[in-house]
Protein 1
Amino acid sequence: MAAGGTGGKTYSFKVVLLGEGCVGKTSLVLRYCENKFNDKHITTLQASFLTKKLNITGKRVNLAIWDTAGQERFHALGPIYYRDSNGAVLVYDITDEDSFQKVKNWVKELRKMLGNDICLCIVGNKIDLDKDRHVSVEDAESYAESVGAKHYHTSAKLNKGIEELFLDLCKRMMETAQAEERLKGNGASQSASSRRGVQIVDDEPQATPAGGCCSSG
Amino acid sequence: MSQRTERRGGIHVDQSDLLCKKGCGYYGNAAWQGLCSKCWREEYQRVRQKQIQDDWALAEKLQREEEAAYASSHGPQTQPPSQSTPPHPQPGHASLGPFSKFEEKKTNEKTRKVTTVKKFFSPSSRSAPKKETQEGKTPSPSVSRRASFDTDQVSKDFVDFLKNLQKPGREIHKQCRAFIGNMSSKKDLSADELSECVQDFYQNLADRLMGHFKCSSESVEQVMDQVEKYIMTRLYKSVFCPETTDDEKKDLATQNRIRALHWVTIEMLCVSFDEEIPEVSENVVKAITDVIEMDSKRVPRDKLSCITRCSKHIFSAIRITKKEPASADDFLPALIYIVLKANPPRLQSNIQYITRFCNPSRLMTGEDGYYFTNLCCAAAFIEKLDAQSLNLSPEEFERYMSGQASPRCSGSEEDWSSPAPAPTNPVLAQLNQNLEVLSGLSGRQEALMEAAHSLQADLLSWPESVQHEVHDILKKYPLEVLPRSAPAIDDNNDVDNDNLPPPLTPQVV
């Protein structure tokens, strides 16, 4: 998925934002992309699809952040959203035990569907409300470690921890992409990997003539 | 410049080095490649002329190749090589002649809404339209002319675009042509295999442009957009909703499903639209129009931009209502609502078509891709929608689905009696307005027809009445042409003459 990763040195990453309704997903991403919080002057028409261009150690990164509907009734639609994504930011509200439980469900599902190709970030939001905390720091961090995810504490209101969260995630996604490139090398398999959800079987007889006709024609 | 160095450093420069290289005797200039102004101008004109001629030659060559490709791709189409069904309708269908001809025309319309509507009414004859689409390959001249006009326009644009690319342009054109030729022989492949072929082609071409011609990723993107437009316009007919898939059946199912869910309200979906605000309802109507329009486009990218436009209108509506940017929590329910209200034609086919044949880079990470994914979600949600997803009890849901009750009027009876409860739904408002206009128009039409009828009757009866009158008058005053008897005038021979006293004779007294 690192489109042009070898040639133009530009990585394109898709990151899904998962989490229950009121955990502050939108505030988090608006803070990150627009640096605004509950602001009447937010210029963007929508906060469901935002992009951010980064430059990490000399490599250009285009980050596309996909917000998902957090209501319970849309839970079943998750796979359609997170298909082909490089990273997932799972947000919970530290004052809401339930929202942390939801995150656990998401993690299970993501690992089952996408394996270890996806970089997971578990984010405890609203640390400005620490006095009402219902999810303990130790629980959250040990859980994150147990599933191979990183844990962060953020506050969209106070603009804490958000920049670090995304920067860290980007670095990890770049590592994954580079490892993948090295593993597959250049050539046909790489091109196949950059396709969206189409299942490609290596010995598919139709694929070969199609490739042959184009190069010969 | 060289003169100055000569003076400063004392380097000797021969006089002849400063002269025009053409040897005309004038001094030359380094900026003009050592020529004098006159010779430079001549040289420059010559090179430019040559460049222009080369460009023309390339353009003409592309055009010729284009025409050849067009002819070859149309050759096999007019005569399907190995179709199991005969191209002509079976004898039994012969009686349907004029009707199927009409249907065939309709099927070939760009917006194939008619087919879907027609299928609604005759679900049993599902095989019939398929046959017609095959017949559609030998269409009536007017249809083929229009279709080929579209394709020609696209081809022309494509060639124009490639002209600017010089050498890669020629290669791209050659590959596209070969690919389309190849695809026409692969009509029997399944949809997924067709998709595979097209995606492979995109990938190979993009790789080649990147690797061989060292194009920047932006320009590759541009080229790929044009390639997609060109290829998919040509392949559209054979790969959109192909017969090998059950896309058509799914379309029908979705359409019926959405019809059955007509009662779903904005509150049940928790959509943050305040349709009392005219701007919001305006945006809602526009969003509905956009999502319906998707079906009329041929190129996957054009279809995507319809979805994007629709989404932008939804965002505007949410923004106006909530005064803050819309999150996915607001957007998805709103999109579902719009899809339910719009019931876009051939929704599943369109989704499948875009998934199969769109340029993957656009679909995967771009903004368009996000909105498209949401549309897929909306379609999936509608398919699986149940009582729980609308926060209703299963009984209520059942009652609404079976049409025994309707959430809108379950409240008060007097709502029914009141003449016109202001419709909250802008679509309904629009519908009502349209209905009013229509009924007004039909009233006028009726009046007009009545007048026309009476005029006709008048006209018919007029000669009769005139005839009657003439008859009556004739009867009343029968015209008897009496024989012109002489005695009537000549009274000399009158018989009664004898009874008359003798005429007075003058007497002489």
Note: Chain B touches chain A through 58 residues (CB under 8 Å).
Protein 2
Amino acid sequence: MGSGERKPFENPAIEWVDSRLPIFTLINKEYGVFPTPKNFNYFWNFGAIATVMLVLMILTGITLAMHYTPHADYAFESVERIMRDVNFGWLIRYMHANGASFFFIAVYIHIFRGLYYGSYKQPRELLWILGVVILLLMMATAFMGYVLPWGQMSFWGATVITNLFSAIPLVGDDIVTLLWGGFSVDNPTLNRFFALHYLLPFVLVGVVGLHVWALHVTGSNNPLGIDTKGPQDTLPFHPYYTMKDTFGILVFLIIYVAFTFFMPNSLGHPDNYIPADPLVTPAHIVPEWYFLPFYAILRAITFDVGIPFTDIVFVEAKLGGVLAMFGAIALLVALPFLDKHPARSARFRPWFKIAVLVLVLDFFILMVCGGKPAEGLWVPLAQVATLYYYAFFLVLIPLFNKFEPRLDLPPSIHEAVLSCCSKKKQCCSHPTEAA
Amino acid sequence: MKYFLLLLSVFVITHGAPALAAGDAEPPPEMHWSFSGPFGTYDRAALQRGFQVYKQVCAACHSMDLKSYRNLAALGYNEDEIKAIAAEYTVEDGPNDEGEMFERPARPSDRFKNPYPNDAAAKYANNGAMPPDLSLITKARHNGANYVHGILTGYEEAPADTELMSGQYYNRYMAGHVIAMAPPLSDGVVGYEDGTDGTVEQYAKDVTQFLVWAAEPEMEERKRTGIKVILFLLVFTGIMYAVKRKIWADAH
Amino acid sequence: MSDTTQQDNPHGEEGSRRDFLYLTAAAFGAVGAGSVAWPLIHQMNPAADTLALSTTEVDLTPIEKGQAITVMWRGKPVFIRHRTEAEIEAARNTDLADLRDKQTDEDRVQKAEWLVMVGICTHLGCVPLGQKPSDIKGEYNGWFCPCHGSHYDESGRIRKGPAPTNLAVPDYTFLTDTTIRIG
């Protein structure tokens, strides 16, 4: 960013600012001429889509906070006042509530993209880890946001999730009391959750900034997973990807808007329209859908871990569940260091490709299990699915490192695009347009 | 893209699933409601009749704390009619300059009068089972409108093997089939001013529609706005697709 | 977007069709952004329940001649003064030429003995003194705003100081001889 390399702008106002603070030079460098692989498919839209959802969540969130009262006696009613009396309050709240779901949809697809095409591999390990940090922050933020309307699901969800920490040996109960600021989930809990729910999105923005910074140091991965070798492999970010991203964002927004306006409560739970009652637990406590896979892993550990045929227990079921759940995310952090296979993209990894698609299916199975009562066949099914999740990272990936063949990589992105297009119909740079 | 569609469809399939596990109640019959679907609207006449049923029957035990008399404007009442409806109720106000609470006729800005002074009184008067507030009842139950309609029309003689205690009634669509609310409706309990037949079925349909409105007063505006927004986005998306193709035409 | 339109193929039908497409896209973007912005701004305007709660009833019986009370209306203080004959006389006999905001006393009251007005200085929104007998009433025997020294007379009209207009008179009606409803 040395001022010596700066190219002057023609517009005098822009030049005046830029010569003092080269912000336009920065924007042009990172989003204007930034060399971007030319063979992205539509999966590469989801980073931009997630960014749009984050901005939308912050804007709607700030405006909701102008009307919301973080007090156990008034929270539920203040939310209903937003829905009934505040100008466009219903719109803003439904945008926020459904926006959370669609933010997660975008981010889960974004993560899947990274997984499938090996975007977590050298040299993008830190970029990937920052992404996992973003996911964790999102989960914390979404969880606390769901508590704010102070309905039955808010209250009991908060109770169950905060109680997870009581599984920690020795200090668990003290930590839970600290989290609650009392002896149960109550007004102090609601107040601090509101404070943190307001704060964390801005932390999230900061980490997203680091994530993008790291991305722009290494450059983007691409569907072939091979490095760019020169200008013939890339296009300037603007207008090629600004316009393609805008198109993708709009398609995504149509689905989001359809939910927001026509089935705004379909992703929520009816019990959350009943005011919180500390004396009555709803028949089924289910977290929001985006937590269900992890909730299923939590509940899958129904057994103590110890030495068989003795009374020696190392890890009780309760702690085991909590460890398994957090472990599922820790494995994502470890993934770049577990996977040593020379090819990035699943396109050139026949075994990994199947394993990762099964992992996606597994994730959905866990999601279904998490929404079902923990009884009958759902328990063993969740256990098998949890087992596969762990096995993918700890057994399959190490095996693939040793034994999985690598298909022939094309010499460069440019040549791959050309040869694909000459074969027609099988165009790898635009699979959707061919479809 | 085909993966994306695959993901999406799996997501849609899996998502519907959790709701099914809602206990052992028989699912209520699916009714045709004027407010269903993306173009659905409320039937003003039905809303007014439903309000009459609520006022004369439900309001004896059920509060609607989130509604104000002024909200009745959405049912088609004019300002004077709303003032007259509000004035039928007395509410406690104060303290006045002498520090005393006093009673006065309700105004349009007041909330619907709660039949009980507090929750404990509501519980005590109903054998310990508090009648739920009805402001959000159709949103607070799965398949809310059909559920409320089902409960109101689902009273039956208990089968021989079901033992009911006093103050309990048998209802097909209630979870566990046992409900603490006595059958609230019977033919002719409410005299409709517009000459509509006073049957239990009619009352149930009207009051259900009223309760859906109470829970989602914004619904008509929401759907109207939604259609405009979707149309706008569809056109915009089409334009952006054309722009994107133009720009990408020379990319290879 | 403009710098892309300058490149290649600037001439002919193709170029102008493309420009039209880009302009339409930009226009849709602008309309879309505006449509999102409006609800986010309009939510700050008074909500339906706030607008509905905009009347206050006041019983005037306890106010003796020469006394004043302050009541809350829409979150603002309303001054209600039971004026003496002398005050009414003085207010009526004021020469309009001496006034910055020319208004007769008759225009500002419904019944001469009751002066009802919003107790907020029209300068920068402070509450003037003059309601309590011990208060400074200013040079014109009415109200005096301590913030920047505006003087109001017996009819609440601005006489001296920075305030531009008289103290505002709210909408009110006499429900009976001794009760009024403000708003």
Note: The domain at 40-63+134-239 of chain B is CATH 1.10.760.10 (Cytochrome Bc1 Complex; Chain D, domain 2).
